[in-house]
Amino acid sequence: GWGTAFKVYLPRAADLADPGVRVQNPTEVPSGSETILLAEDQDAVAAVVRATLHLYGYRILEAHNGSEAIAVIERHKGPIHLLITDIVMPVMGGVELAAQAQELRPELKVLFMSGYSERAFSSHGVLDPEVAFLQKPFMPESLARKVREVLDVVVAEAMATPSEAPRKRKSISRSPRTKRRSPSRKTPNHPRR
Hints:
Elements: E1 35-39, H1 43-55, E2 59-63, H2 66-75, E3 82-86, H3 94-104, E4 109-114, H4 118-123, E5 132-135, H5 140-159
Parallel strand pairs: 1-2, 1-3, 3-4, 4-5
Helix pairs in contact: 1-5, 2-3
């Protein structure tokens, strides 16, 4: 039969690399030993995040959605230093999860991740532009660096003197759904919209 033939010409390499040698990044990624709660509904992503963070010394608790994550937070007796959550998940999304989790554990830091860009969420008022965010897909080293960066912010705030400490926590969301009214305020009886 008739067909098409292709020829591909590539430039010669002066030195051939040894396939058994892995080039190390000149700046080492710092490890840790903190406990991290991972809320991710995609098993493949969760497996990569889990394996990466174990490699860097972290202890991982896992949940497949926001509701499971809240149950883990309520059951776990020890500290949870960081919540890593996908923003878009079934049952309960990451923004709602973060708000509820920080009500249960106010010291908890949050790192959001998503396949959508941070700009897509912040321009629609879903996320405050100042929250920690990592866009998928990401390299394992990028994840480890971002986790360390977020955890180190906790250390810096905890070591600050009361006059240096931030007076107000950064908002996770600008969405009215996550704002809570105080129980002492009377609200008119209007039907929900």
